Amino acid sequence: MTLEIKTQHQLKATNTNLPFYFFLSFSVPALALLILFMQQVTSGTEVFGDKAIENFVSGFTNSSTVFFFTFITNFVTTGSVITLLVISLVLIWWKSRDYAAMIVLAVGTYLSDEINQWLKITIGRERPSIDVSVFAEGHSFPSGHAMVGIMFYGFLTYFVFSMLKNSKHKLILVITMSVIIFLIGLSRIVLNVHYPSDVIAGFAAGFIGLVIMILLHKGGRTIFHQKLKKG
Asked: What's the superkingdom here (predicted)?
């Protein structure tokens, strides 16, 4: 009987981790894509797909879409992220006392911006244009909105996903947040403050960072639980 219960528990744990293992498998292609784009940008080679995507996006760019994507791009301004971060930390503490998640979210969000700034300075790619009415400063590659956006909102999605029990709610959450993260990246192309390759590279770098954040959270939560049992 004990053996049967243990086996069922192991199967449940394995099924819970399957989405993450599937998610983790994409980190290697993401790293390869990031390295490829970095090599092309630093060598001065035109990145494959940039022109085609820019031409496609320009086809539906008008005053209405610019207004909409200006709103969307503000989801990853410094003020927005700090405000949402503080609210998220308070809610995580209140609902679950998951200190590992709080630490990983706070440190990960901070480092995502620092690493992005370091990459921008290192690569030194100039932006396609600078519009003072749009939040954009410094160099272009990779997109900070895409990188910080996928790490910050992606980790929140992962955390809430792990708390939910209803499969439909999980699906709605993943689809909704995936669309929001995608639109944040797209907004930088529509507003002409980033090349498409900047955004794709930002997503790739942010995805790798997100996987690391999730791994750290899983390890940190285990350590916290062990300390609580000993205490």
From this structure: Bacteria
